[in-house]
Amino acid sequence: MNITVLGAGSWGTTVATIAAHRNPTVLWARNEDDVLGINQRHENSRYLAGFTLPDDLRATADLEEAVADADVLVVGIPSSSFREVLEQAAPHVRPWIPVVSLTKGFERGTHLRMTQVVKDVLPGRPAAALTGPNIAKEIMAGFAAASVVATEDLSVASALQGVLRRGLFRIYTNHDVVGCEVGGALKNVVAIASGMAQGLGVGDNTRSMVITRGLSELTRLGVAMGGDPMTFAGLAGMGDLMVTCISPHSRNRHVGEQLGQGVPLDEILSNMTMVAEGVKTAGLVMELAKQHGVELPICSRIEGVVSGRLTVLEAYEGLMLTAPGHEAEPG
């Protein structure tokens, strides 16, 4: 079957590489230089320097050409432009084909999860999310990893399993799309907090506390939004949270670490080639928390930092001054 991946960032390129070993695969990139690099030199030097891509992986900057013959459409576009690209592609996408989101975030203004955006723009197509503790460079290097493909129809999930798995990259199925997507979005915010602790040099005990209490927060909001509590103990919850909070390859952890070292946010972001979704997600998470009546102390402090209302030290000291209650409670 024909696979199309929209978005030639590190993760989109990695998923396209996996798919290309089993099926004809097209990777859509905005940048013509990236297209030439993939087609002629079999490399994506902007995002995955040093890795050789499959000879039969083809790239194009023509969106209609990319999606017209797709039997499976995979979307790895940042949340801020996710809808825009899908709307441009929509007239050329065949009916009934499954659409898989790689994006971890919420849509600004609507608070929709990415699979909800898929259903809105491409009605009638099964929408799924691929999520989990997946560092692109490690998977490209052949290290063992696991992910989750989440969709309400587990027969569709099983079919996608066969398309997207390869070698030591294992894929599990899950019916809890809400929980998987909420976990994937909130872990980016918590990773900024973990990075801040690293940048401040406050120690591994503090980082462990932030990660654990962060897991409590993403679980609390995820359950309030309709997710299954068990999801947050799995790959899409704790697994994704752990790797994003501790890996040196994590963009969101990098942002937090730089903030902890006193680097201004604008400078951090201007020096990054990839999007750190947690920066934009923090404000949306707090809007959702208010909507669902949920307290999220860590996410609240991170939103204060990225919005400029709080310094890193003020955010950290505010968390430490909060009187702890029962472990199952906020704080």
Major sheet, described briefly?
A: 8 strands, mixed
Task: Please name the CATH architecture of the largest domain.
Answer: 3-Layer(aba) Sandwich
The secondary structure category is alpha/beta
| Strand numbers in spatial order across the main sheet | 3-2-1-4-5-6-7-8
Order of helices and strands: EHEHEHEHEHEHEHEHHHHHHHH
CATH fold-level assignment of the largest domain = Rossmann fold
- Globally, the shape reads globular
Q: Which whole number gives the mean pLDDT?
A: 94
According to DSSP, the number of beta strands is 8
Radius of gyration: 19 Å
Number of domains: 2
Low-confidence stretches: none
CATH superfamily of the largest domain: NAD(P)-binding Rossmann-like Domain
Distance between the termini: 49 Å
Description:
With 331 residues, the protein is an alpha/beta fold. It has helices at residues 10-20, 32-41, 63-67, 82-89, 114-121, 136-140, 154-164, 177-200, 204-224, 235-246, 251-260, 265-270, 277-292, 297-306, 312-321, and strands at 3-6, 25-28, 58-60, 72-75, 99-101, 127-131, 145-150, 169-174. An eight-stranded mixed sheet has the order 3-2-1-4-5-6-7-8, sandwiched between helices.
Overview in brief:
This protein has 331 residues and is α/β, with parallel strands linked by helices.
Task: Give the topology.
Blueprint: E1 3-6, H1 10-20, E2 25-28, H2 32-41, E3 58-60, H3 63-67, E4 72-75, H4 82-89, E5 99-101, H5 114-121, E6 127-131, H6 136-140, E7 145-150, H7 154-164, E8 169-174, H8 177-200, H9 204-224, H10 235-246, H11 251-260, H12 265-270, H13 277-292, H14 297-306, H15 312-321
Parallel strand pairs: 1-2, 1-4, 2-3, 4-5, 5-6, 7-8
Antiparallel strand pairs: 6-7
